[in-house]
Amino acid sequence: MTGRGTRLGVLVSGAGTNLEALLRACNADDFPAQVVLVVSNRRTARALDVARAAGIRAEAAPQSAFGNDPVVRDRAVIALLRDAQVDLVVCAGYDRILSDEFLSAFPDAILNVHPSLLPAFAGGMHAVEDALAYGVKVTGCTIQLLDHGQPDGGPIILQAAVPVEPDDDAESLRARIHEQEWRLLPRAVELWSTHRLRRDGRIVRDAGPAASDEVDAGPAASGHPPAGLPVTRPAGSFPPASPASSRH
Questions:
Q1: Alpha carbon distances (Å) from 207 to 100, 184, 198, 212
Q2: Which domain holds residue 71?
Q3: pLDDT at 121
Q4: Which string of b and e fits 205-217 if b means at least 16 CB within 10 Å?
Q5: How crowded is residue 183: how many other Cβ atoms within 10 Å of its Cβ?
Q6: What is the C-alpha separation between 36 and 49, in angstroms, rounded?
Q7: Domain count of the fold of the chain
Q8: 28 CB contacts (<8 Å, ≥6 apart)?
Q9: Residue 247 domain-assigned?
Q10: Can you tell me the distance from the alpha carbon of 145 to that of 143, in angstroms, rounded to the nearest whole number?
């Protein structure tokens, strides 16, 4: 893997299929990002093996190793990300709440994958099962920026709809949602990395390919340039951050 582009730190909890999709994208010569670190809250997560097989630094940071204190654990993960000079954090199936301190360390630089069309079925770990139980005819997936406030309430970057078939169970529906996640996540990383995203309050828009020539976003929170998301927040259009955490 080359040294080009945005440096990605990926947070994972499970099998790592979204990580695999991202790594496939990163293997393309013209993809503007590379995964430099993978961190899991579970020592046995298959995603760690996926990272190591690709020659990527992989670290386990279970909460139990930090006195069961999630804030202390998050500080340790922040330190790992900064040591790796990460520009953009990607929560790819990460099932822990991120502290306000973590969110503040990477402002507008944390992407999250959620298996529903947010704001539907937000704030929990069973969005697919919840969609089936509610009887919706269409669900899907969302790539969003994590932000302070309501869990899964951050600004939406991309979404894809997935029809619910009459004979679907959680496994079959989740499999089709995954297919869309694997398509959207690399695209969202590409948009962030090429400075095409514009945020106005909670609205995020694709400003087009010329945007990368217009942006001087300054250093990333990690101290490693460049930052990826120019932010437009007119007076009164963006409320102050609340003390609650964001989640996936």
A1: 29, 17, 6, 9
A2: 6-229
A3: 97
A4: eebeeebeeebee
A5: 14
A6: 14
A7: 1
A8: none
A9: no
A10: 7
Residue 190 lies in a domain: yes
Q: How far does Cα 216 stand from its chain's mean position?
A: 23
Cα angle: 101, vertex 33, 141; to 5 degrees:
70
CB 183 within 8 A of CB 23: no
Question: Does any domain span residue 239?
Answer: no
Catalytic residues: 114
Share of the chain above pLDDT 90, in %: 79
Q: What is the CATH number of the domain that holds 48?
A: 3.40.50.170
Among candidate residues 124, 99, 121, 125, the one with its CA nearest the CA of residue 110? 99
Band (pLDDT 50/70/90 cuts) for residue 210 is low
In whole angstroms, what is the distance from residue 132 CA to residue 172 CA?
A: 11
How far from 163 is each of 95, 160, 176, CA to CA, in Å? 25, 10, 9
- 47 part of a folded domain: yes
Q: Say if CB 11 and CB 77 are below 8 A apart.
A: yes
- Which amino acid would we find at residue 84? A
Q: Is 171 exposed, middle or buried (0-12, 13-18, 19+ CB in 10 A)?
A: exposed
Whether residue 23 is predicted with pLDDT greater than 80 in this model: the reply is: yes
Q: Is pTM, for the whole model, over 0.90? A: no
Query: Could you give the CA distance from residue 117 to residue 221 in angstroms, rounded to a whole number?
Result: 29
Tokens read off for 208: 């087009």
